[in-house]
Amino acid sequence: MPDRPPSGTLSFRRLDPEGAGQPAGTWDRAARTLVPVRTTWRRRPARAGRGSTVSLHSTEHGVDLMLSRSARSTVRVPVVDLRTASCQPSGLLRALADDLDAGGTRGEREVVDALRAQARFLEYDDHELAASPIGLRSGDPSRWWDLFGLLP
After folding, report:
1. Which of 48, 55, 98, 106 is deepest in the core (most CB within 10 A)?
2. CB atoms within 10 A of CB 2
């Protein structure tokens, strides 16, 4: 009997201080589509597969997952926010990695490996989030000085 595709949705929450806990977007597991909370002419649902690209995008205070089908169909959801020392749950990251691993999306191997490493980190390590596999990708330059003890 062939495996059935996963069903249901995964819900991403905002991690930033202003909107922590509010919905940021959903992942439709059957359709392999990332849907933003609010859609505009520029922010529309993006479907994973041939012709789309998935990446981890560094921001000043964390890292977002970005799925784009075209310039008019790009969706971003937060994965890590270092201001609030928060991250999406490990179960959500692992389920998303499994869904993305189905193939066909540019950049998926790097993202799938990073999501699985982050899920393992959250389940087994007690280190601070800034030292996590995805937290290390954050673009806040002042964090590097603290992390490596380079400040006097």
Report:
1. 48
2. 4
Instruction: Read off the pLDDT of residues 1-23 as tens digits, 9 standing for 90 and up.
Output: 445 556 799 999 999 999 888 99
What would the two tokens of residue 65 be? 């997952």
CA 1, distance to chain mean position in Å, is 32
* Contact predicate 78/14, CB 8 Å: yes
Q: Please give the helix or strand (H or E) that residue 118 lies within, else none.
A: helix 108-124
Q: Helices 108-124 and 90-100 sit at what angle, rounded to 10 degrees?
A: 160
Question: What is the C-alpha separation between 115 and 91, in angstroms, rounded?
Answer: 10
CA separation (Å) from 31 to 27, 65, 99? 9, 18, 10
Written as six digits, the tokens of 12 are 């991403």
* Lookup: tokens for 19: 């909107």
- Cα–Cα distances in Å, from 147 out to 1, 55, 118, 125, 138? 50, 24, 18, 17, 12
3-state secondary structure of 34: strand
Can you say whether the dihedral through the CA atoms of 17, 119, 46, 51 is positive or negative? positive
